[in-house]
Amino acid sequence: MNVDQARGFISAYAKFVEANMVPVQQGNGVCISTPMLNRNNDCMRVYLGDDPAGGYVISDLGETINDLELSGFTMKGQRIDKLNSILSGFSVKEEKGELCITASGSDLPMKMNMLLQAMASVDDMFLLSQSSVRNLFTEDVGNWLLDNEIPYVPGPSFQGRSGLSFKFDYAIGKNKRRPMRLIKTVNNPGKQGIQNALFGWEDIKSARNDCEGVVFLNSTNTKDGVVSPESIEACKNYGLTPIIWGVDQDSYVPMLAA
């Protein structure tokens, strides 16, 4: 892989995203179907309408939380605290079950991107309803980093070449030995989880030459405790270092602590 090949890949990726963004008029607003997938392998949809105060409102019309509740996940107690914590990291609000964000004309693409990332993170809360899951996988990884005395910054956002911002779960600072390491965690390392984790990484990588990408894949949340070779290969093809949680994470302590 060289720079010219990477530019061709970026161009093809941008065309793929654009080709799979489908707008449909719905009343006074527009529903946009996106290539990002939820845990049911359905395309995520956002709804764009005029804000009476000026600008625009982008919303999921309550689909994300409603789908969680239909699946038996009740949003109460500590789960509400976790929801608010997730949303605050993306500057997204919850209003009567809807996830929404306001935007002006100039920042609308960035705000829609932040809403989609928030929707994916909230959708991942479904796994909290399973008795085998005590904490969000992201917190488990954070605790592991602390246990191994690896300093990190939680929840940073970085701007890609497109001008859009993408949020990572953790960042480990640059030093003389290693570039900055940006970390994503994937609790459900199937096709949908991998695709959401990869979303935006190529954009960030093309804008910054001072960082490496690392993705933690939770093998304890897969059938038979095995992450598929296809998922691992997909991460490598995007230039990310896959770390299989529950299998080989400890072998990466020297790389992350360096």
Automatic annotation (TrEMBL):
Pfam family, one: DUF1829
InterPro entries: DUF1828, DUF1829
Domain of life: Bacteria
Official protein name in the record: Domain of uncharacterized function DUF1828
UniProt source species: Collinsella aerofaciens
Taxonomic lineage: Bacteria, Bacillati, Actinomycetota, Coriobacteriia, Coriobacteriales
